[in-house]
TrEMBL record:
The lineage of its organism: Bacteria, Bacillati, Bacillota, Bacilli, Bacillales. NCBIfam families: folE (TIGR00063), PRK09347.1-2 (NF006825), PRK09347.1-3 (NF006826). GO terms for biological process: one-carbon metabolic process; tetrahydrobiopterin biosynthetic process; tetrahydrofolate biosynthetic process. Residues 1-166 form the GTP cyclohydrolase I domain. Keywords: GTP-binding, Hydrolase, Metal-binding, Nucleotide-binding, One-carbon metabolism, Zinc. Pathway: Cofactor biosynthesis; 7,8-dihydroneopterin triphosphate biosynthesis; 7,8-dihydroneopterin triphosphate from GTP: step 1/1. Belongs to the GTP cyclohydrolase I family. This is GTP cyclohydrolase 1. InterPro entries: GTP-CH-I_C/QueF, GTP-CH-I_N, GTP_CycHdrlase_I, GTP_CycHdrlase_I_CS, GTP_CycHdrlase_I_dom. It catalyses: GTP + H2O = 7,8-dihydroneopterin 3'-triphosphate + formate + H(+). Zn(2+) binds at C64, H67, C136. It comes from the Bacteria. One of its GO terms (molecular function) is GTP binding. GO terms for cellular component: cytoplasm.
Length: 176
């Protein structure tokens, strides 16, 4: 229907398999809709006292729900565990994936990651920051390639000193 609507001929050779390919691509790109993000955080470890845990530079691809074109970039996920209870590091990246692979807006993506981590892990505090470029602002519309959007979400009792420490860690680790 899309091919017809744009004035293409869906019966020409190169386009014959395109509807099937696009259907399979959407199943992959929107696979987060069939995932329960809470299950992602099932791994738990006791590590004794622990301060901030930060997984930075988690690459992700999502789809803007207004135009169904990609927005993509990096997510930084930090939390302060309660009573030394942590989850697996990869689970933080899986959590980003579970919420990114849906029709999204960046603010909601940021909030959902923070909220789920906070609730499921019963963390003392959570801080999530996402930096992304939106193709709907680059390849069409206002056409501003290279512009990026930064969103943050905080949950729990992060002190401003701890939040500052996350920024310092993000900065420091880049120099390693
Ligand atoms: N807040 C927010 N806005 C987004 C996000 N992704 C896309 N948008 C914006 O959603 C808005 C939709 O605006 P509309 O005026 O309904 O759509 P449009 O006519 O295609 O707008 P233009 O993009 O300005 O051409 C645009 O301003 C987009 O930049 C997002 O993740 N968060
Ligand atoms: Zn858009």
């Amino acid at each position: 229907m899309i091919l017809e609507a744009i004035g293409e001929d869906p019966t020409r050779d190169g386009l014959l398999d395109t509807p099937d390919r696009v259907a399979r691509m959407y199943a992959e790109v929107f696979s987060g809709l069939r995932q329960d993000p809470k299950e992602v955080l099932s791994a738990r470890f006791e590590v004794g006292d622990s301060e901030i845990v930060l997984v930075r530079d988690i690459p992700f691809y999502s789809m803007c729900e207004h135009h169904l074109v990609p927005f993509y970039g990096k997510a930084h996920v930090a939390y302060v565990p309660r009573d030394g209870v942590v989850t697996g590091l990869s689970k933080l990246a899986r959590l980003v994936e579970a919420y990114a692979r849906r029709p999204q807006v960046q603010e909601r993506l940021t909030n959902e990651i923070a909220q789920t981590l906070y609730e499921e892990l019963n963390a003392e505090g959570v801080f999530v920051m996402i930096q992304a470029e939106h193709m709907c602002m680059s390849m069409r519309g206002v056409q501003k390639p290279g512009s990026s959007t930064i969103t943050k979400a905080r949950r729990g009792n992060l002190t401003s000193a701890q939040e500052q420490e996350v920024f310092t860690l993000l900065q420091a680790s880049r120099q390693l």
